Structure formats: C-alpha cells, structure tokens
Amino acid sequence: MSDQLTLSAEARERAGKGASRALRREGRVPCVIYGNKEDPATIHVEEKALMKALHTGHFMNSVVMVEVAGSPVRTLPKDVSFHPVSDRPLHVDFLRISEHAKVTVNVPVHFVNEDAAPGIKRGGVLNVVRHELELTCDAAEIPDAITIDLTGRDIGDSIHISAVTLPEGVTSAIDDRDFTIATIIAPSALKSTEGDTEDEEAPAAPDEVPSGQKEEE
Question: Quick one: average pLDDT of 170-192?
Fold first, then answer.
C-alpha cells in the first residue's frame, strides 16, 4: 500500500492570477481542494515540501493529508500543473475523499525475472505498452505498484490485463476489453537475418529475352 503523505497548507485570502503569481514568488504553490459534496477550498502549500512529496515517485497514487489551520483533510492528488520551462509546480488539484472511498488511480507497473524469460535471453526486447494501470480500489488500500512476472515469456508473447493478478479488492478501471500491457518483440538483428534468409530462398527470375529476338523453341 502506498504511504500516506502529509502537507501543511494555508487558506488563500485572494484568488486570481495576480495573487497566484505573488504566492509563487514567496515559494508557495496555489492549490484547490474539491469534491465530497463540499465547497471548494483554495489553499497554498510550501513549494519545497510539495517537491519533496512529488519526488517520492508515488505522489499521484497516494492519500495526502492536507492540514489546513490544524485540521487535516484526506485527499487524493488529481492534477499537477508545471511550468513548461522550469518544471516548477504551478498549481495542484486535490480531490477530497472519505477514508474508505472507492478511488481510481494510475499505478505503475514493475516487471521482474527478465533473466528467466527465454525471449529476452535470446535477445528479445520488452516493449511496454502501458507503464501504468488505471485501477479502482479502496482509498486506504492503494497499491504502490503492480508486479508482473516475466518467467517463461518468449518472443512474440503478449501480456494482457487478464493474465495479471491484482491485489484483493483492486480491479481494472478499464473493463470492456482485455488490453495489452507489454509484448516481447524480436530484436532488429534477428528480423534482419530472417529477412535475408527469405531473400536467399526466393526463386530466381527467369532470364529475360532481349527485345526483338524470339525465344528458341
């Protein structure tokens, strides 16, 4: 389960672009908390504390307790806007949730036992189609990652969501198709060799008869 994070926040007295720019100059990041049938709350958090939380690698799939004036609010980060040049966080949206709410989160995929995959041993390449899975689960039981075992996988094999064992109580948010997560593809060198072999085995074209001459009977 993902660790719970905590951020201290202060209420924003003013809204608007000018007020937001002033907050950023002071090392603060404007945020909003919404949802759970309550009015949105405009707040701001310390940029350094937010960056530390972002660098955990699981900020977007963790419950974040936002403490406003000493009162904790249970939230789930839904969106972080970054500056296009400096990559500094500009704004964060937090979804207010109850303790055991059903939430939909993107959870990273980790692949293990590549050395036990015949296809990779032969030079095959693991082509990851989805680096994250969109999952639905209890807010208190969000998994850190989904582990997929590559043991026995060969070139040409595809790994679909139906082959993945999800933790108890966790389901795929996409339930209308058996989508592909990864495939093991042949290395380019092997493809090139196979192509050369096909060219060598192709029958030779019959000799052409020069124009104006009849073929001898």
Answer: 87
